[in-house]
Amino acid sequence: MASVVARLAPSPTGAQHVGNARTYLLAWLSARSQHGRVLLRIEDLDSPRVKPWAVQQALEDLAWLGLDWDEGPDRPAAVTPSTAGPPSTAGPPSTAGPPSTAGPPSALGVPQRYIQSQRLALYAEALAELQRRELVYPCTCTRRDVEAAASAPHAGQEGPVYPGTCAHRRVQDAVGLAGQPFAWRFRVQTAAGRPSPVKTAESALRVAYTDRFAGPQGCHVARDLGDFVVARSDGKPAYQLAVVVDDHEMGITEVVRGDDLIPSTFRQLLLYEVFDWQPPQFAHVPLVIGPDGRRLAKRHGDTRISLLREAGIPAERLIGFLAWSCGLQTTTRPIAARELIPTFAWAKVPPAPFVFTPAMWQELSDRSEP
Q1: Which sites bind L-glutamate (predicted)?
Q2: What is the DSSP letter of 325?
Q3: Per residue in 41-86, pLDDT tens?
Q4: What is the pLDDT of residue 29?
Q5: Residues contributing to the annotated binding site for Zn(2+)
Q6: Residue 96's pLDDT is what?
Q7: Where are the beta strands (DSSP E) in 96-245?
Q8: Annotated binding residues for L-glutamate, as ranges?
Q9: Residues of the binding site for ATP
């Protein structure tokens, strides 16, 4: 049996909250219960929203929770980073997309291996490969353009499906767009329709996989996905491309995350296929939501992990509460994360979202409690 390699991937766009902690706990327990390794990666590509203090705070929160990691920015691996990243092939130079500011992949410093903003060269290589194979095209459409053109006949849960306004363009057309902002979009039907001995014409238009937690999942690529952005107009790689490159290069075999990202998984599986890489096993877990049924956020009050930590609340109290919310114990009794490893099982985790109420936060943050 291949060894499990999982990852915790906080985004430093703000403080980590109770909902984040629940997903991190499940990801960590799944890996540790299989005697696997855990990597910590900082996903900081959304630069306008990144908070300078959030990286250190995330590390401190995870350490306080007892969710340790084997590799990360503060704990680099003893071995040289893998160079088995995106194929380094000659092709048309990119006139936009991720700038190669981090140097060649082999020159990446080990600590920088775990920080997305220091991995731009790897993403640029991947984009160049997609350009070489005409699997992407330059797109000048703004978000408003997409919303107006789609006019609602095909709207996915993430908004309107891209109508293909710029799909007639080829890679070389980017040269004529100099001075005009454009992104790079991935041609989903071209990618999904590649020759394969196991695909019929109809099945080629579908992406399907079996989720370790959510079960069988599938979608029609043109109707449900549409061509998606892999490099933004500011030159930065989009999440879909970056996370695939990262998980492949880091040897990640298991990804546990919120079930709101299932649509992203279909897109990522298409990228894995065109690069001929083995995808990890995915487990998408229910979100923590507020009493109004919406994803837990600031509108539901302040539920930052750091507030509990800085107030001197024992981490075991939060872990015990989260374990109870995940069906891993019958009460909210305080417990250390490591104590949950021997009895962890995915079958115990309920399939419904967990409703977090103000009363629950009040109980967690009560300093008079033992």
Answers
A1: 7-11, 43, 239, 257
A2: H
A3: 999 998 788 998 999 999 999 999 999 999 999 888 754 334 334 4
A4: 99
A5: 139, 141, 162, 166
A6: 38
A7: 136-139, 155-156, 159-160, 183-186, 206-211, 215-220, 228-231
A8: 7-11, 43, 239, 257
A9: 298
Task: Say whether both 232 and 139 belong to one domain.
Answer: yes
**Residue 207 tokens, joined:** 């992406």
64 and 97 in a single domain? The answer is: no
Residue given tokens 């080990």 in the structure block: 110
If asked whether residues 305 and 232 sit together in one domain, one would say no
Distance (Å, whole) CA 123 – CA 249: 11
Confidence (pLDDT) at 48: 84
Whether 115 and 205 share a structural domain: yes
Query: Residue 231 sits in which domain range?
Result: 90-242
Q: By CB neighbour count within 10 A (0-12 exposed, 13-18 middle, 19+ buried), where does 324 fall?
A: middle
Binding-site members are 7-11, 43, 139, 141, 162, 166, 239, 257, 298
* Residue 12 and residue 50 in contact, taking contact as beta carbons nearer than 8 Å: yes
Q: What is the mean pLDDT of the chain?
A: 87
Give me the pLDDT at residue 198, please.
Answer: 44
Q: Is residue 119 part of a domain?
A: yes
Q: What is the CATH number of the domain that holds 213?
A: 3.90.800.10
Q: Does residue 247 lie in a domain region?
A: no
pLDDT band at 305 (very low <50, low <70, confident <90, very high): very high
Q: What is the pTM (predicted TM-score) of this model?
A: 0.86
290 and 297 in contact (C-beta within 8 Å)?
yes
